[in-house]
């Protein structure tokens, strides 16, 4: 199975969405580093 590749802009939008999700749904603030780590897991 081929890996999915995202552009840098798409990656930044996904990381921002992860941060927004954590803030709104889980009431947790996570930084850029942590959000990028979660992005790389998937």
Describe this structure in words.
The protein has 42 residues and is an all-alpha fold. The protein has one domain. The chain contains two helices and no strands. The radius of gyration is 11 Å and the shape is elongated. 2% of the residues are buried.
Q: What class would the helix/strand composition place it in?
A: mainly alpha
Low-confidence stretches: none
Whole-number tally of structural domains: 1
The total beta strand count reads 0
The profile of the biggest β sheet is: none
- In quaternary terms, these chains amount to single chain
Beta-strand percent range: under 5%
Radius of gyration: 11 Å
State the distance separating the first and last CA atoms: 14 Å
Helical residues, percent: 55-70%
The arrangement of helices and strands along the chain is HH
- Helical stretch count? 2
Q: Which of globular, elongated, flat, extended, rod-shaped describes the shape?
A: elongated
Protein name: DUF2164 family protein
Pfam families: DUF2164 (PF09932)
InterPro entries: DUF2164
Please tag this protein with its features.
elongated; DUF2164 family protein; 42 residues; DUF2164; 2 helices; mainly alpha
Short description:
By secondary structure, this protein is mainly alpha-helical.
Topology of this structure?
Layout (H helix, E strand, L loop, with lengths): L7 H18 L6 H10 L1
Helix pairs in contact: 1-2
Organism: Psychromonas aquatilis
Protein name: DUF2164 family protein
